[in-house]
Amino acid sequence: MRTVGVEEELLLVDPETGEPKALSAAVLARAEADDADQDVFEKELYGQMLEFATHPQTDMAELGAEIARCRKEAARHAGEIGCAVAALATSPLPVSPTISINPRYQWLADQYGIATREQLVCGMHVHVSVESDEEGVAVLDRIRPWLPVLVAISANSPFWQGRDSSYDSYRSRVWDRWPSAGPTELFGSPERYHRLVADMVCTGVILDEKMAYFDARLSERYPTVEVRVSDVCLHAETAQLIATLARALVETAARDWRAGREPADHSVTLLRLAGWQAARAGLARELLHPDTMRRLPAESVLEALLDHVGDALTDSGDLAGTREAVAGLLRRGNGATVQRELLERTGSLREVVTECVRHTQG
Known about the structure:
single chain, Putative glutamate--cysteine ligase 2, GCL_type2/YbdK_subfam, ligase activity, ATP-binding
């Protein structure tokens, strides 16, 4: 059974006003004083963000429970200094991001200018174990067209600087400002993958291999494929669903590779269009079907995803739970839908944030 680990970025906010607060250093100091949380929470690029990482898990229910626990611990540490955490992929309220003091972060600010200064977005990364770089690259080549579906499921960033962006996942559009972000061509071998990353670093446009911000990549720290397309999800159970689907996609791709089935040869241009459509439409309208790259209702594309990974989900014991979670998500809507409904009900972006603080902790 492949192990799965999750990294989530949370927004630090004022519990009364909903405005982002640059207090990550103080929250981290609280966490570091707690023996149980010393290795869980990490500094991020902006002072208004807090990141945590789960342990690798094979049981998806246990992973979901750990995500919920980490969120509650983050809320506890933040509450001790008078702020709160919200699983929001962008701030609904206007914000001027504060860049953390760090030589690497200063390099990013100098190199990319306004793109760095405006890049306050919170994502979710899923690490799925692979046996080797050869298997990992084979997986990367085969999961490419399915990743936009994860964008639509996780979409949780409709607002930007106090206005409705008209996108369900505006975070993904902001993230694509990085020059190394987005979908990739077929690699075919670990040698071609590593040569491309090395060539990117040699251009001087990016600082190092950590800045290969592909939609999915080989982790430079762990023996994993890292799926990086998702917004941080408003609800922990949606984060668990994304992790479950990511593992099933990796397992299905590895099986296809071992069986000699070739990956779909979609161009990067079409993959970018699929990602844009998923970010714009979410689950409420049409997505591009990963096989045909033609529009179909989102519900049909989700059913195609479940069919595609059905054997892997069955073998891991996750099929029934995943189908139930997808059905519930289609009824309720993704995080972007929930945020817009909150705004319609309350008439206040401040209330949207404070309600989302409660949603974050379940």
